[in-house]
Amino acid sequence: MSELELIQVDILYTGMGLPIRSGAVVVGGQTIAAAGDFDTLHAQYPQAEQGRTVNVISPLPVNAHAHLDMSDYAFRALPYFQWIPEVVIAGRLSRGLAGARKGLEQVRASGAAALGDIVWPGTPEVMAWLLTEAEMSGVAYWEVLDPNPATANATFTQVVQDVARFRPLERPGGMRLGLSPHAAHTVSHKLHRLLAAFTRRENLPLQIHVAEHPSELELFASGTGPLAESFAKMVQFSSPGLTLPEVLGRAPDPKLTPVSYLADLGVLDARPTLIHLVNVTDDDIRTVAQSGANVVTCPRSNANLQCGTFRWTDFVAAGVDVALGTDSVASGETLNIFDEIAAARRIHADLDPRLIVRAAVKGGHRVLGSKAPFLRRGEAWDERFVWPSA
Ligand SMILES: [Zn+2]
User: Fold this and answer.
1) Tell me: the pLDDT tens digits for 2-13?
2) pLDDT tens digit sequence for 184-217
């Protein structure tokens, strides 16, 4: 008979239902003999050697939102509207396969089970590598950026061609192709509609950055503020004379929010995953809940770019599935999902930590369309199920 070890755990998530407090896992010969309530298992397995007490045991967590191709950037904390031009755009020459490879190593070393990664269209070699070679499952979202409605049809035609070129590269167990219209305001209304209809038809997973910084609300409400100003400057390089009402297909309006704008365009009908959603109204939260869209929160990135704090409790109360992502190293500091979880526990100190555990595992799998394995009798035991101590 093999030796049994009973591991006591503060929070146990078996992948089913809600995580429980004061749990235990009984392990024998690299196999799970039982997982459940501590008192029950302690009584059922008197012969088991009571070993460690650990903080959390769960299936491996998921990093639901990253930008691997930015892994050669240096971390820099700046307000979001300044960070986009001064960090992301200024550093674009450092984007590419070398950074993506380095980033994936960090994601793998952190013990993430799967990854949602945004791929910049300037580095198509990263997409080809992710789909054909990268040792990771999840979704690689091909990013689309074009605020000019005059070029929406041409850009859309190109995206359709890109999808036709990339999709045959998918392999079982590897990454799947998805699309990411970059943000509510950096893709024209016309292109948003075309992409939403296309992703529904093609059943492509979708991620969009939405309501990241308070200045994004201001852009939609009045067309003023620091993001509206920096966006207007950027747009003039590629599309001189293009105005915000032309981009949005309507005038800014105090009742308009990034979420209501996307809902009006039919984008939420494509069940996208919405990234960030920090600056939202109560109506926005209801709209997101009704649409069935998932949400990914990136607590460190939001703090570092002065975006505010995600209304986690309100989203959970509305029945929205929340996942966790690191974002890029340029705003999130590292690609280690456990660093993000630790920050989430610090920043959301009032939130039941079991919700954070569930978000990191099941929320992430929901976003990526995969399933968390269950920790139950007969399944293989993996030491990585024990979370690093916080
Ligand atoms: Zn992002």
Assistant:
1) 599 999 999 999
2) 999 999 999 999 999 999 999 999 999 999 999 9
Nearest to 124 by CA among 142, 139, 138, 107: 142
Coil vs helix vs strand at 72: coil
Which CATH class, in words, describes the domain spanning 62-368? Answer: alpha beta
**CA 147/CA 64 separation, integer angstroms:** 26
Kindly write down the DSSP assignment for every residue of 90-157, as one continuous string. TTGGG-SHHHHHHHHHHHHHTT-SEEEEEE-TT-HHHHHHHHHT-S-EEEEEEEE-B--GGGHHHHHH
**Cα 130 to ligand 1 centroid, rounded to whole Å:** 17
The CATH number assigned to the domain with range 4-58+374-385 reads: 2.30.40.10
Instruction: Using the mean position of ligand 1's atoms as its centre, give its distance from the Cα of residue 325 in Å.
Output: 9
Mind telling me the catalytic residues?
212
Task: Give dist(CA 110, CA 335) in Å, integer.
Answer: 8
Q: Where in the chain is the domain with CATH 3.20.20.140?
A: 62-368
Q: Check: pTM over 0.85? Answer yes or no.
A: yes
